[in-house]
TrEMBL record:
Protein name per Swiss-Prot or TrEMBL: Cell division ATP-binding protein FtsE
Membrane topology: Peripheral membrane protein
Pfam family, one: ABC_tran
Role of this protein: Part of the ABC transporter FtsEX involved in cellular division. Has ATPase activity.
Length: 278
Protein backbone atom coordinates (compact mmCIF):
# COMPACT_ATOMS: atom_id res chain seq x y z
CA UNK A 1 0.00 0.00 0.00
CA UNK A 2 1.29 3.49 -0.80
CA UNK A 3 0.46 6.26 1.61
CA UNK A 4 0.93 9.88 0.56
CA UNK A 5 0.84 12.53 3.27
CA UNK A 6 2.03 16.07 3.75
CA UNK A 7 2.92 17.88 6.95
CA UNK A 8 1.10 20.93 8.26
CA UNK A 9 2.31 24.37 9.36
CA UNK A 10 4.47 22.95 12.15
CA UNK A 11 6.40 20.83 9.67
CA UNK A 12 6.88 23.77 7.35
CA UNK A 13 8.09 25.90 10.29
CA UNK A 14 10.63 23.24 11.33
CA UNK A 15 11.70 22.94 7.72
CA UNK A 16 12.35 26.67 7.51
CA UNK A 17 14.50 26.53 10.68
CA UNK A 18 16.51 23.64 9.30
CA UNK A 19 16.93 25.46 6.00
CA UNK A 20 18.11 28.63 7.80
CA UNK A 21 20.65 26.69 9.88
CA UNK A 22 21.88 24.89 6.80
CA UNK A 23 22.26 28.19 4.92
CA UNK A 24 24.41 29.52 7.75
CA UNK A 25 26.80 26.57 7.56
CA UNK A 26 26.96 26.42 3.82
CA UNK A 27 27.42 30.16 3.42
CA UNK A 28 31.00 29.46 4.43
CA UNK A 29 31.38 27.43 1.30
CA UNK A 30 31.87 28.98 -2.09
CA UNK A 31 29.05 31.09 -3.41
CA UNK A 32 30.10 30.30 -6.94
CA UNK A 33 26.88 28.56 -7.92
CA UNK A 34 23.52 30.33 -7.92
CA UNK A 35 21.29 29.52 -4.97
CA UNK A 36 17.66 28.81 -5.67
CA UNK A 37 15.29 29.10 -2.76
CA UNK A 38 13.36 25.87 -2.44
CA UNK A 39 11.96 26.20 1.05
CA UNK A 40 8.67 24.95 -0.24
CA UNK A 41 8.30 21.62 -1.96
CA UNK A 42 9.25 22.00 -5.63
CA UNK A 43 6.33 21.98 -8.00
CA UNK A 44 5.78 18.49 -9.33
CA UNK A 45 5.26 19.68 -12.86
CA UNK A 46 6.78 19.12 -16.27
CA UNK A 47 8.48 15.92 -17.32
CA UNK A 48 9.61 13.86 -14.32
CA UNK A 49 13.37 13.38 -14.05
CA UNK A 50 12.79 9.79 -12.91
CA UNK A 51 9.80 7.57 -13.66
CA UNK A 52 9.42 3.99 -12.42
CA UNK A 53 6.45 2.42 -14.14
CA UNK A 54 5.49 -0.94 -12.56
CA UNK A 55 9.13 -1.96 -12.20
CA UNK A 56 9.91 -5.46 -10.97
CA UNK A 57 13.41 -6.89 -10.60
CA UNK A 58 13.95 -10.56 -9.90
CA UNK A 59 17.52 -11.81 -9.47
CA UNK A 60 18.11 -15.31 -10.82
CA UNK A 61 19.54 -16.33 -7.43
CA UNK A 62 16.26 -15.43 -5.71
CA UNK A 63 13.50 -16.29 -8.19
CA UNK A 64 10.70 -16.26 -5.61
CA UNK A 65 11.56 -12.99 -3.92
CA UNK A 66 11.63 -9.91 -6.18
CA UNK A 67 14.21 -7.33 -5.11
CA UNK A 68 11.78 -4.73 -6.49
CA UNK A 69 8.11 -5.61 -6.77
CA UNK A 70 5.85 -3.51 -9.02
CA UNK A 71 7.35 -0.12 -8.12
CA UNK A 72 5.76 2.98 -9.64
CA UNK A 73 6.90 6.48 -8.72
CA UNK A 74 7.95 9.79 -10.18
CA UNK A 75 10.61 12.26 -9.08
CA UNK A 76 10.58 15.79 -10.49
CA UNK A 77 13.31 18.34 -11.20
CA UNK A 78 14.60 20.08 -8.09
CA UNK A 79 13.34 17.50 -5.58
CA UNK A 80 15.44 16.19 -2.68
CA UNK A 81 14.33 12.64 -1.96
CA UNK A 82 15.40 10.14 0.68
CA UNK A 83 15.13 6.44 -0.15
CA UNK A 84 14.87 4.44 3.07
CA UNK A 85 14.35 0.82 4.03
CA UNK A 86 15.91 -2.03 5.94
CA UNK A 87 18.94 -3.83 4.60
CA UNK A 88 17.87 -5.89 1.60
CA UNK A 89 14.74 -3.81 0.90
CA UNK A 90 15.87 -2.96 -2.64
CA UNK A 91 17.49 0.50 -2.41
CA UNK A 92 20.74 -0.38 -4.16
CA UNK A 93 18.85 -2.39 -6.78
CA UNK A 94 16.81 0.71 -7.50
CA UNK A 95 19.91 2.90 -7.80
CA UNK A 96 21.76 0.41 -10.01
CA UNK A 97 18.69 0.25 -12.25
CA UNK A 98 18.70 4.04 -12.61
CA UNK A 99 22.16 4.05 -14.15
CA UNK A 100 21.34 0.93 -16.14
CA UNK A 101 23.80 -1.29 -14.35
CA UNK A 102 20.77 -3.55 -14.03
CA UNK A 103 17.75 -4.01 -16.26
CA UNK A 104 14.34 -4.61 -14.68
CA UNK A 105 12.66 -7.96 -15.22
CA UNK A 106 9.49 -6.07 -16.16
CA UNK A 107 8.24 -2.50 -16.19
CA UNK A 108 9.81 0.67 -17.50
CA UNK A 109 12.34 3.15 -16.11
CA UNK A 110 12.36 6.53 -17.81
CA UNK A 111 15.02 9.16 -17.13
CA UNK A 112 13.98 12.57 -18.43
CA UNK A 113 12.40 11.45 -21.70
CA UNK A 114 14.49 8.35 -22.28
CA UNK A 115 13.21 4.83 -21.71
CA UNK A 116 16.20 2.90 -20.34
CA UNK A 117 14.72 -0.36 -21.63
CA UNK A 118 14.98 0.68 -25.27
CA UNK A 119 18.15 2.76 -24.85
CA UNK A 120 20.95 1.53 -27.10
CA UNK A 121 24.09 0.40 -25.29
CA UNK A 122 26.20 3.12 -26.86
CA UNK A 123 23.97 5.75 -25.24
CA UNK A 124 24.48 4.43 -21.69
CA UNK A 125 27.70 6.42 -21.09
CA UNK A 126 25.80 9.58 -22.09
CA UNK A 127 23.08 8.69 -19.58
CA UNK A 128 25.72 8.28 -16.87
CA UNK A 129 27.26 11.66 -17.66
CA UNK A 130 23.97 13.18 -16.62
CA UNK A 131 23.83 11.33 -13.32
CA UNK A 132 26.39 12.06 -10.62
CA UNK A 133 26.95 9.10 -8.28
CA UNK A 134 28.26 9.09 -4.71
CA UNK A 135 28.86 5.89 -2.75
CA UNK A 136 29.47 4.96 0.88
CA UNK A 137 33.08 3.93 0.20
CA UNK A 138 34.02 7.09 -1.77
CA UNK A 139 35.66 5.10 -4.63
CA UNK A 140 38.56 7.57 -5.03
CA UNK A 141 41.63 6.71 -7.06
CA UNK A 142 44.31 6.21 -4.36
CA UNK A 143 47.28 7.25 -6.49
CA UNK A 144 45.82 10.52 -7.70
CA UNK A 145 45.62 13.84 -5.88
CA UNK A 146 42.34 15.50 -4.94
CA UNK A 147 42.60 17.71 -8.04
CA UNK A 148 43.39 14.74 -10.28
CA UNK A 149 40.55 12.63 -8.88
CA UNK A 150 38.08 15.34 -9.85
CA UNK A 151 39.72 16.35 -13.13
CA UNK A 152 39.81 12.72 -14.25
CA UNK A 153 35.98 12.76 -14.40
CA UNK A 154 36.20 15.59 -16.94
CA UNK A 155 39.15 14.14 -18.88
CA UNK A 156 37.34 10.87 -19.61
CA UNK A 157 34.49 12.76 -21.24
CA UNK A 158 36.87 14.80 -23.35
CA UNK A 159 36.69 18.21 -21.66
CA UNK A 160 39.41 20.69 -22.58
CA UNK A 161 42.28 21.65 -20.29
CA UNK A 162 40.77 25.11 -20.04
CA UNK A 163 37.44 23.72 -18.75
CA UNK A 164 39.30 21.46 -16.31
CA UNK A 165 41.41 24.35 -15.01
CA UNK A 166 38.32 26.45 -14.31
CA UNK A 167 35.75 23.91 -13.17
CA UNK A 168 37.86 21.72 -10.88
CA UNK A 169 39.06 24.49 -8.51
CA UNK A 170 35.55 25.95 -8.56
CA UNK A 171 33.87 22.71 -7.50
CA UNK A 172 36.56 22.01 -4.88
CA UNK A 173 35.87 25.48 -3.44
CA UNK A 174 32.16 24.62 -3.38
CA UNK A 175 32.82 21.54 -1.25
CA UNK A 176 35.27 23.42 0.99
CA UNK A 177 38.46 21.69 -0.17
CA UNK A 178 40.19 24.58 -1.94
CA UNK A 179 43.24 24.13 0.34
CA UNK A 180 43.61 20.37 -0.29
CA UNK A 181 44.01 20.26 -4.06
CA UNK A 182 47.38 18.49 -3.93
CA UNK A 183 46.66 16.06 -1.10
CA UNK A 184 46.38 12.32 -1.70
CA UNK A 185 43.15 10.59 -0.57
CA UNK A 186 44.92 8.84 2.34
CA UNK A 187 45.93 12.25 3.70
CA UNK A 188 42.27 13.22 4.10
CA UNK A 189 39.62 12.48 6.72
CA UNK A 190 36.61 10.35 5.76
CA UNK A 191 34.41 13.44 5.48
CA UNK A 192 36.95 15.16 3.24
CA UNK A 193 37.21 12.07 1.04
CA UNK A 194 33.45 12.04 0.67
CA UNK A 195 33.56 15.74 -0.29
CA UNK A 196 36.06 14.86 -3.04
CA UNK A 197 33.74 12.16 -4.32
CA UNK A 198 30.81 14.61 -4.27
CA UNK A 199 32.95 17.18 -6.13
CA UNK A 200 33.80 14.52 -8.71
CA UNK A 201 30.11 13.61 -9.07
CA UNK A 202 28.95 17.19 -9.69
CA UNK A 203 31.91 18.71 -11.56
CA UNK A 204 30.18 18.04 -14.87
CA UNK A 205 27.02 19.70 -13.48
CA UNK A 206 24.67 16.75 -13.90
CA UNK A 207 20.98 17.50 -13.39
CA UNK A 208 20.62 14.42 -11.16
CA UNK A 209 22.79 13.37 -8.18
CA UNK A 210 22.31 9.91 -6.69
CA UNK A 211 23.94 8.97 -3.39
CA UNK A 212 23.99 5.43 -1.97
CA UNK A 213 24.63 5.61 1.80
CA UNK A 214 26.82 8.73 1.48
CA UNK A 215 27.25 9.04 5.26
CA UNK A 216 27.45 5.32 6.04
CA UNK A 217 31.13 5.50 7.03
CA UNK A 218 31.05 8.89 8.74
CA UNK A 219 30.46 10.13 12.28
CA UNK A 220 27.27 12.14 13.01
CA UNK A 221 28.89 15.59 12.85
CA UNK A 222 30.71 14.87 9.59
CA UNK A 223 27.50 13.35 8.22
CA UNK A 224 25.66 16.59 8.91
CA UNK A 225 28.30 18.49 6.95
CA UNK A 226 27.85 16.14 4.00
CA UNK A 227 24.05 16.46 4.11
CA UNK A 228 24.37 20.28 4.32
CA UNK A 229 26.48 20.10 1.19
CA UNK A 230 23.93 17.90 -0.60
CA UNK A 231 21.19 20.37 0.37
CA UNK A 232 23.25 23.20 -1.03
CA UNK A 233 23.77 21.31 -4.27
CA UNK A 234 20.01 20.70 -4.38
CA UNK A 235 19.42 24.44 -4.00
CA UNK A 236 21.36 25.02 -7.22
CA UNK A 237 18.55 23.14 -8.98
CA UNK A 238 20.10 19.64 -9.00
CA UNK A 239 17.67 16.80 -8.27
CA UNK A 240 19.09 14.74 -5.38
CA UNK A 241 18.20 11.14 -4.44
CA UNK A 242 19.83 9.77 -1.27
CA UNK A 243 19.52 6.15 -0.13
CA UNK A 244 20.26 6.06 3.57
CA UNK A 245 19.95 4.32 6.92
CA UNK A 246 20.63 7.62 8.70
CA UNK A 247 17.50 8.07 10.78
CA UNK A 248 18.63 11.30 12.45
CA UNK A 249 19.38 12.94 9.14
CA UNK A 250 16.06 11.98 7.56
CA UNK A 251 14.11 13.06 10.65
CA UNK A 252 15.92 16.40 10.84
CA UNK A 253 15.78 17.33 7.20
CA UNK A 254 12.09 16.54 6.58
CA UNK A 255 12.29 16.01 2.84
CA UNK A 256 10.31 13.64 0.65
CA UNK A 257 10.76 10.07 1.88
CA UNK A 258 10.24 6.97 -0.24
CA UNK A 259 10.26 3.79 1.83
CA UNK A 260 10.89 0.27 0.54
CA UNK A 261 10.15 -2.92 2.43
CA UNK A 262 11.21 -6.24 0.91
CA UNK A 263 10.93 -4.81 -2.58
CA UNK A 264 7.58 -3.08 -2.03
CA UNK A 265 7.04 0.68 -2.02
CA UNK A 266 5.36 1.15 1.36
CA UNK A 267 5.44 4.92 1.83
CA UNK A 268 5.88 8.08 -0.26
CA UNK A 269 5.68 11.07 2.03
CA UNK A 270 6.39 14.80 1.64
CA UNK A 271 8.50 16.17 4.49
CA UNK A 272 8.68 12.65 5.81
CA UNK A 273 10.49 10.85 8.61
CA UNK A 274 12.65 7.71 8.67
CA UNK A 275 9.81 5.82 10.23
CA UNK A 276 11.11 2.32 10.94
CA UNK A 277 11.20 1.11 14.52
CA UNK A 278 14.49 -0.78 14.34
N1 LIG B 1 23.46 -9.50 -7.46
C1 LIG B 1 22.47 -10.05 -6.74
N2 LIG B 1 22.10 -11.35 -6.94
C2 LIG B 1 21.10 -11.89 -6.24
N3 LIG B 1 20.38 -11.24 -5.30
C3 LIG B 1 20.71 -9.96 -5.05
C4 LIG B 1 21.76 -9.30 -5.75
N4 LIG B 1 21.85 -8.03 -5.30
C5 LIG B 1 20.89 -7.89 -4.36
N5 LIG B 1 20.21 -9.05 -4.20
C6 LIG B 1 19.08 -9.28 -3.31
O1 LIG B 1 18.06 -8.34 -3.63
C7 LIG B 1 17.46 -7.83 -2.45
C8 LIG B 1 17.61 -6.32 -2.41
O2 LIG B 1 19.00 -6.02 -2.23
P1 LIG B 1 19.56 -4.52 -2.28
O3 LIG B 1 21.05 -4.60 -2.24
O4 LIG B 1 18.93 -3.80 -3.40
O5 LIG B 1 18.99 -3.93 -0.89
P2 LIG B 1 19.39 -2.62 -0.08
O6 LIG B 1 18.10 -2.04 0.41
O7 LIG B 1 20.25 -1.76 -0.92
O8 LIG B 1 20.23 -3.20 1.13
P3 LIG B 1 21.42 -2.49 1.98
O9 LIG B 1 20.74 -1.40 2.77
O10 LIG B 1 21.93 -3.59 2.83
O11 LIG B 1 22.42 -1.97 1.00
C9 LIG B 1 18.10 -8.57 -1.29
O12 LIG B 1 17.29 -9.68 -0.96
C10 LIG B 1 19.43 -9.03 -1.85
O13 LIG B 1 19.86 -10.22 -1.22
Amino acid sequence: MTETTSQGAAGRHAGRHAAAASRQVTSQLSASLPVLEVEDIPQQTGTPVITFDHVTKVYAAQPNRPALDDISLQIYAGEFVFLVGHSGSGKTTMIRSLIRELKPTSGRIIIADEDLGSMRNWRVPYLRRNIGCVFQDFKLLPNKTVFENVSFALEVIGKSRHVIKTQVPEVLRLVGLQDKLNKMPDQLSGGEQQRVSIARAIVNRPPLLICDEPTGNLDPQTSRGIMDLLERINRTGTTVLVATHDREMVDNMRRRVIALDRGHLTRDQDRGVYGFNV
